Inverse folding.
């Protein structure tokens, strides 16, 4: 007679594959405190610039059969918006790369944050 | 001394190079491109108006003590200097034959001038005459301004599908596209019609806000408008 192989292959109570039993004991693998730096992973996501202006321009284009001459106001507002955005982004990138802290700045880059954390280290 | 050395001809340059006469950081104009000089070399200010601007803000004395790259052969302080025409000539040029490219562009300008003068003399009233632009360089500026696209379509992959997403375009890229489209439209011609003739027609058409190139720009805008629903896929 052959025995069912399941009986032999099933995890025993000493096997690491055994089902967990409540309560699960807590093991501290890493010290329970935050790091003194932040990573730059969250900085990648940025907003799409000038969506509003683009939509207004498209509406005007559709009305004027894509004749640019009739939409000069919309076109110039779109272009100036993109120019402003580029200048702002460039400035922010440069300051962020150097880690220069601007007083009153709300959106800090990770380098700026690290600079701040370095100069005022969190107490442990 | 340095400035004299920069203006040496290619032959002398290579001779000097072979003799190891020059210091290591001095490059000849034989090497094209921005990398032939180290970063601390400043760009030359060769226009009198720009020099006057620098003098006004007292920057010229600072520039005078730093090493400066030599200006290109076509970068002069002449009244006929036009950066846009220079750029156009460089786009027309093939295999480094700049003289031929310049001749072609100048011939095209001549053709534009001839056509415009003919129109000027055929025009009946003084008002109609006043409206006709006779300067071919003005026509070129107008044509390129009319050909510049405002948007571009970027391929962006979302969920395994590549969407053509409308996005704003930089000044530099829109200038590049305008010149490229003008030349594309020109080169799409009969074999018997020569480049200067066709280019003159294209320039006049574009300056008049009609023709193949303006239509191509409008087609791009149409496609951008059709794809406007994808615009939020652009996370810059």
């Amino acid at each position: 007679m052959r025995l069912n192989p399941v009986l032999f292959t099933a995890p025993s109570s000493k096997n690491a594959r055994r089902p967990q039993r409540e309560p699960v004991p807590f093991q501290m693998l890493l010290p329970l405190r935050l790091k003194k730096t932040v990573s730059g992973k969250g900085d990648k996501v940025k907003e799409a610039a000038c969506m509003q202006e683009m939509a207004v321009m498209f509406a005007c284009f559709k009305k004027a059969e894509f004749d640019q001459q009739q939409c000069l106001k919309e076109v110039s507002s779109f272009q100036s918006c993109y120019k402003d955005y580029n200048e702002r982004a460039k400035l922010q990138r440069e300051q962020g790369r150097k880690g220069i802290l601007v007083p009153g700045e709300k959106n800090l880059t990770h380098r700026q944050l690290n600079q701040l954390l370095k100069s005022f280290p969190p107490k442990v | 001394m340095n400035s004299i050395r920069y203006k040496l001809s290619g032959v002398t340059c290579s001779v000097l190079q072979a003799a190891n006469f020059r210091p290591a950081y001095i490059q000849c104009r034989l090497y094209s491109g921005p990398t032939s000089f180290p970063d601390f070399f400043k760009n030359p200010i060769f226009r009198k108006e720009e020099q006057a601007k620098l003098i006004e803000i007292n920057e010229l004395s600072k520039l005078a003590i730093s090493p400066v790259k030599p200006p290109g052969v076509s970068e002069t302080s002449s009244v006929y200097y036009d950066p846009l025409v220079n750029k156009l000539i460089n786009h027309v040029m093939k295999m480094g034959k700049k003289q031929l490219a310049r001749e072609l562009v100048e011939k095209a300008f001549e053709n534009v001038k001839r056509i415009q003068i003919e129109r000027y003399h055929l025009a009946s009233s003084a008002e109609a005459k006043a409206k006709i632009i006779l300067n071919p360089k003005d026509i070129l500026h107008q044509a390129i301004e009319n050909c510049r696209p405002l948007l571009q379509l970027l391929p962006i992959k979302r969920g395994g599908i590549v969407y053509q997403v409308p996005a704003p375009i930089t000044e530099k890229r829109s200038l590049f596209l305008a010149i490229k489209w003008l030349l594309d439209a020109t080169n799409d011609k009969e074999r018997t019609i020569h480049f200067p003739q066709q280019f003159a027609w294209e320039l006049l058409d574009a300056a008049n806000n009609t023709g193949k190139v303006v239509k191509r720009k409008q087609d791009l805008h149409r496609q951008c408008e059709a794809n406007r629903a994808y615009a939020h896929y652009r996370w810059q």
User: Anything to note?
Assistant: Chain A has a mean pLDDT of 83. Chain A touches chain B through 22 residues (CB under 8 Å). The CA atoms of residues 34 and 111 of chain A lie 17 Å apart.
